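All the exercises in this workshop are built on plain-text protein records. There is nothing in a record beyond a sequence line and a structure line. A learned vocabulary of local backbone shapes supplies the integers on the structure line. The question running through the whole workshop is how a given chain folds. Here is such a record, shown just as it appears in the course material:

***
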Amino acid sequence: MPTDASQTESQSELQTLWDAVARELRSDVTEVTFHIWLQPLEPAALLGGTLFVRAPEHIRTWVEDRFRPLIATAAQKAGSVLRAVEVVDTSWDAPATSVTAAAAGEQHRAATGLNPRYTFDQFVICDGNRLAHAAALAVAEMPAQAYNPLFVHGKPGLGKTHLLHAIGNYVQAYGDDLAVRYATVEEFTDAFVKAMRSKDNRPFRERFRSADVLLIDDIQFLAEKMRTEEEFFHTFNSLYESGSQLVIASDRKPRDLGILEARLQERFEHGLVAELEPPDFDARMAILRKRARIDSLAGVADDTLAEVARYVNASVRSLEGALIRVVAYASLRGESATPGLARQVLERLYPGSETDGACTIEQIQEAAADLFEISRAQLLARDRTPRVAFVRQIAMYVARELTDETLPAIGRDFGGRNHTTVLHAHRRVVADMSRDPHTFEAVGALRARVGERSADRA
């Protein structure tokens, strides 16, 4: 039993560490970002190599999703050796033992690749995802007996990854010790390349071919990776023939997977193919109400949620992000999250939302060139100067948000670039918008300019 003196000393060391972390964070982000998202955080405990950080409920989910890796990096710069960072609510207290539920969750995630937050209970069912949800639940309840393989597809942000994790978490909880593995194609590829370089593929095959349930995300990125595709084909066959369950997620249906080998496409279509479609207004409201309930956002009225639902119709991810931005902006200004405030925040990011999807990549490129005063030729060339690269990334992000084009198609229209370049640009802009007002304003300005041009052509 620690003495009061030892407790005081431990708390003092924790506060000293956190002060150093805060200094690193302040130097890594803009002042506005630090003030909104990071300054409200408080150190809670350092247990078993895990730093627990308290966050107010209205920003906790956003901080966990967007800033946890940054906090871990800042702690390492400050001289701390951490295994993980956990973001907890303000009422959380350190337990008597060092083995906590959060730490156990982190160990679970490391072993299986699963995020314990993504469950069937947290998934909002609507007409656009009802088949995919029912199929996923059937697979979770009866692995390798219901639909094998299960192939789910849809545009980014509609819940494919959530369903894969929900299947895995359900099997982990109720599957009588069945081995579950979740991985993106990028992780599968990295593991395979590492095995080839080390000339020892036993750890790789033990990880993937010993699974009773294998969940593979973003299968569309397997194209053009010939050796990895060959290995995945054999992994798929080995697991299928041994009676294991396979679940695949993609941003398009199997027959539209470009140059993937026909034999793989045939295997994907052998089971059930289920599509996820964008949520309608009622579904978007249900999603926002659930998000508000989970994050304890009791002060956000239905009319404010309705305003968010009207502005954002592309994906669940965009919808939740928009709500967080509105609540954070209201908190910063010390105001209530009213419909008027929601319009003020969102009209800069989603102007002319009724025109979303009604534009072409060429129109976006023309609008970007005009707005940022560069030539369209510069935008498409191999010009890597910071200003041109910034505009190109913004334009790629908006192209993915406002058109139905695939990543490879967007890459081709941006000077023959690879689809991974487009994905990197999208992820970079998403991350930068949460911490850099300049990026936030640039995206809003380009969307507005595209909306104006679409309206002029109408």
